[in-house]
Amino acid sequence: MRDTLLGFLGRLRVANEHVGRLMNDAAGWLFVVCALFVSFDVLARKFLNVSSRATVELTGYMLAFGLAWGLCDALTTRAHIRVDVLVTRMPLRVRVWMHGLALAFLAVLAFFFMWRAWAVVHDSWEFNAHDSSALTIPLVVPQALWALGITAFFVLTLLMLAEAVILLTLGRRAEVDRMLGPRTLTEEAEEALEAAGLPRLEAVPESSAGAPAGSRATP
Description:
Elements: H1 2-48, H2 55-69, H3 71-76, H4 92-127, H5 140-169, H6 173-180, H7 185-196, H8 206-209
Helix pairs in contact: 1-2, 1-5, 2-5, 4-5, 4-6
């Protein structure tokens, strides 16, 4: 029964991760558009003496929900900033519970973010609020996009937490450590090589590959 539930949760998590990856890609291109828009507005003011009169508002909206849309993929790829100097030196049987506790706190935090985000959306909808720029954009639009990213992040934390709890009850600690632990030095190096368009690393000894980024494998 638990294996069946674990498989179902795994499929849901993979689907959520796929959505998060698409949202992250959209956020990345959005930041490119934001940079181009700001550059155009600066140059237009300098040489043409014209302005869109909505640069601050539009770029603020882009940055706000763009950041929210990147949360899921950051959690999936373990890219969030974390302080794990002590946790990585704990034995596996203790370390996996620390990972689970940290994820539980993150899920609670994400819930409050999501709750208040949709409360803001509801207030803007109820009062028919618009921004003060020349475009008078209904605030519910960018705020709903922002809240959507936080909601997807909260759902992912719940799925990962449920999956981690089941794995812990089954005694599969190594899988929990791989899912929630920090990225290894090899993973960090492969990401840098992939970004640079270089070939992947050759196989390295398991003791070195398993060392978390920022730490050193001891003999």
